[in-house]
Amino acid sequence: MANHSQLGFQDASSPIMEELVEFHDHALMVALAICSLVLYLLTLMLMEKLSSNTVDAQEVELIWTILPAIVLILLALPSLQILYMMDEIDEPDLTLKAIGHQWYWSYEYTDFKDLTFDSYMIPTTELPLGHFRLLEVDHRVVVPMESPIRIIVTASDVLHSWAVPTLGVKTDAIPGRLNQTSFIATRPGIFYGQCSEICGANHSYMPIVVESTPLPHFENWSSLLSS
User: Fold this and answer.
1) What is the Cα–Cα distance from 142 to 214, expressed in whole angstroms?
2) Eight-class DSSP state of 7
3) Which one is the CATH code of 94-225: 1.10.3720.10, 1.20.210.10, 2.60.40.420, 2.60.40.1090?
4) Beta bridge partners of residue 89, listed in sequence order
5) Backbone angles phi and psi of 43, in degrees to 5
6) pLDDT, mean of residues 199-203
7) Dihedral of the alpha carbons of 160, 174, 138, 205, in degrees to the nearest 10
8) Is the pLDDT of residue 55 over 60?
9) Model confidence pTM above 0.90
10) How does residue 88 score in pLDDT terms, banded at 50, 70 and 90?
11) According to the model, what pLDDT value does residue 3 have?
12) What whole-number distance in Å separates Cα of residue 119 and Cα of residue 137?
């Protein structure tokens, strides 16, 4: 959950999000090094007279041609690695289907019989004490922790987007099309997200709440809900 005046990412709760945060920090360090070098060279050129040796130096031209290529490779390789990791879905333990509507979500646990429900935002007037305004729902998505979860996302009317930042998940919900992604919740907790595609007047009123629990608790919850 994000805090007021927070400048960084939320605490990562999945391996993919941990990789994304590390790549973000890596890219920032590269950008900081580039900015420091450019600032130093600009200061040096303003403070000293230019000479023909500096202007016509072929060694300098060679360096400023090769160095940006090396920097781009240092950024591209980890980026491509994370991209392929995000697309990899290998033998999930649970498959969950999320259907976007105006303006609520429907969920289907395809591995269980008759385990479906709608998830609406709780109005502010009915919100229990201590819960988050505009983020709490009447039915949470419950998943077992440390288990590969596959999410199949679609929509019934207009474009939506199923996004939970702390899990590193964001997938567009498109009518007539099935998109899929996956995640592994590495710790128990409650993770909040929202529809991230402008989908109409009440776009900001269709939150997403994922609750990660140990496997025995998930089995008890699923048996109670499906019975």
Assistant:
1) 10
2) -
3) 2.60.40.420
4) none
5) -65, -40
6) 87
7) 20
8) no
9) no
10) confident
11) 75
12) 6
pLDDT computed for residue 67 by the predictor: 87
CA 37 to chain CA centroid, Å, is 32
- Interval 106-163: pLDDT, tens: 999 988 878 899 999 999 888 888 888 889 999 999 999 999 999 999 999 899 999 9
Q: What is the structure's pLDDT at 36?
A: 94
Exposure pattern of 188-202 as b/e (b: 16+ CB <10 Å)?
A: eebbbbbbbbebeee
CATH code of the domain made up of 15-87:
1.10.287.90
Taking Cα atoms as reference points, which of 198, 203, 204, 193 lies closest to residue 140? 193
Report d(CA 16, CA 56) in Å as an integer.
47
Q: Which two tokens stand for residue 201?
A: 């007047």
Query: Rounded to the nearest 10 degrees, how much is the dihedral formed by the CA atoms of 144, 149, 155, 156?
Result: -60
* Amino acid at the residue 147: S
| Annotated domain spans of the chain | 15-87, 94-225
CB 1 within 8 A of CB 57: no
